[in-house]
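Tokens for ATP phosphoribosyltransferase. Go.
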Amino acid sequence: MSKPSPRQPVPGPGLVRLAIPNKGRIAGPINELIEKSGLHLAEGGSDRRLITRTRDPNVEILFARPIDIPEYVASGVADLGITGKDMVMERGSVVEEVLDLQTGKATLVVAVPEESDVETVADLAGAKVATEFPAITRAFFDRHNVAVTIVTVGGACEATPHLGIADAIVDLSSSGTTLRTNHLRVIDEVLTSTTVLVANPASLTAKREKIDELVLALESVIRAKGQCYLMMNVHRSALADVREVLPGLSGPTVMEVASDQNLVAVHAVVKEERVYQLINQVKRAGAKDILVMPIERIIR
Ligand SMILES: Nc1ncnc2c1ncn2[C@@H]1O[C@H](COP(=O)(O)OP(=O)(O)OP(=O)(O)O)[C@@H](O)[C@H]1O
Ligand SMILES: O=P(O)(O)OC[C@H]1O[C@H](OP(=O)(O)OP(=O)(O)O)[C@H](O)[C@@H]1O
Ligand SMILES: [Mg+2]
């Protein structure tokens, strides 16, 4: 195993260092996004790697825990970082949010045991509140002028009320499964979080061109998510009926079919969730030779 070469703490002017989660819930989807954007990580392997090159010699990837990424970006150790908005807020890091990656959606909630007589945040005055997010929790209760004792935990927060460690929790919820399984109910919402791309403010100026290239690549993958490409041949007489059925980004594209003057080719970008219904509708309207293709990226 080659020793990692000694690196300057801050990436030089010609290099953009992007910090992404090495593990945890969003690590998988972010790795997939990076691959689909065409960046492609140079070295495969386990989540023990720390820094790796990409297909672009001017972009390298730094692997880190989601909670550490905001400060890596704020300090300039990384020019860019992908983590949850909740992590950025918990650290209070001075970074610029460049892109919402529309994944990793979760709500930070205040929850109490189902049998608790607590109904509102004000009812928690003098209570103990367990959380992985002490800074956000403190600010929330201060905004409500409610004095609580915050108990900071590293995870698995839902067990604390049943262990007598806390009266309430402030924790992330997305499907709500963990709360229900642990017989907890939500009494208020603190914030909603999604996974975001954040930038070091100085890097955003000094490396604008390279960062814009990266944002364009990531954005094109996000825009293509849930979309697919429909192609079909239609008799001219049926074209009006088929066009009525097809939405498309800016209306379907209609082209001549060289081998048959009576036919036209109709192409459209459609939502994957509509394909089943659309195919039956265009078929009834007279389309044939219908093809459905995945879309990797859409660049406007
Ligand atoms: N249940 C969830 N649903 C959606 N997104 C979530 C959920 N839990 C965490 N996240 C998001 O994933 C990001 C990283 O959280 P995650 O819990 O994966 O990291 P971690 O807590 O450091 O790792 P681990 O959970 O293994 O301790 C957070 O910024 C958060 O916004
Ligand atoms: O609403 P749900 O879909 O059930 O998800 C909520 C759970 O997800 C997070 O846990 P995570 O998996 O990150 O483990 P952790 O608590 O150890 O961070 C969060 O802390 C909740 O426990
Ligand atoms: Mg977690």
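The CA atoms of residues 99 and 197 lie 5 Å apart.
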